[in-house]
Amino acid sequence: MRDYGLGVTDVTWVTTREERVSGKLPPNIKIERVEGERSPEDLLLAGEIDALVQPDLPDAWLQGKGTVARLFPDCEKEERAYYERTRIIPIMHPVVIKKEILDRDPWVATSLYEALVESRRIYRELMQQPHRLSFVWNRLEEERQFFGKDPFYQGLQDNRHDVESMIQLAEEQGMLPRPLGVEELFTETTRET
């Protein structure tokens, strides 16, 4: 949002369910909870919210009903421009482990990391074959040329810039109760990954 002049406090955020991860937000961030069985897409289609941020594409868009549109019609162009400006592909799925588990069994962090790296290796090997992709065109070569490597790298060393940027953005938005260092987010055994 910072790239488009819209601050996190300029928006009234609307949710339809309780957040699964607890946290304390700054008081200047406005959040409204809509009770009942209505989905965010229902609210969008009814004109009760202006935009929708979620991982799944709305059914109305997938069905081509013309009632909703992408905020950025050429989203790939926007994503490319963002990457070229920042050298960041936003981290979307951090893996976290409860502190009580790490205190009891510190090896869990390293074992989980190694399992995820191995599963990714297997997936990448499998997905190199065009007949396994669900796209019309195999764009693997184009991605490699643009990014120079696999864009979804793992481990702290390759993601340090992204994590530092995420922390900086969280600080700017008042989401952190105190300054946070990158190393605090990783166990001693995974800081060298």
Strand-helix topology:
Blueprint: E1 12-15, E2 30-33, H1 40-45, H2 59-62, H3 75-86, H4 99-104, H5 107-126, H6 140-147, H7 156-172
Parallel strand pairs: 1-2
Summary, kept brief:
The chain is mainly alpha-helical and 193 residues long. The chain contains seven helices and two strands. It has two domains: 2-71, no CATH class; 88-190, no CATH class.
Number of structural units classed as domains: 2
Share of helical residues: 25-40%
Listing every helix as H and every strand as E from the N terminus to the C terminus, the arrangement reads EEHHHHHHH
Beta percentage is under 5%
Basic shape: globular
Largest sheet: 2 strands, parallel
Give the spatial strand order of the biggest sheet.
Answer: 1-2
The overall strand count is 2
Please tell me the overall pLDDT: 84
Helix tally? 7
- How widely separated are the two ends? 30 Å
- Uncertain runs: none
Category by helix and strand content: mainly alpha
Q: What is the C-alpha radius of gyration, as a whole number of Å?
A: 20 Å
What report would you give on this structure?
This protein has 193 residues and is mainly alpha-helical. The chain is 38% helix and 4% strand. It is built from 7 helices and 2 strands. It is globular and about 50 Å long.
Defining traits:
mainly alpha; 193 residues; globular
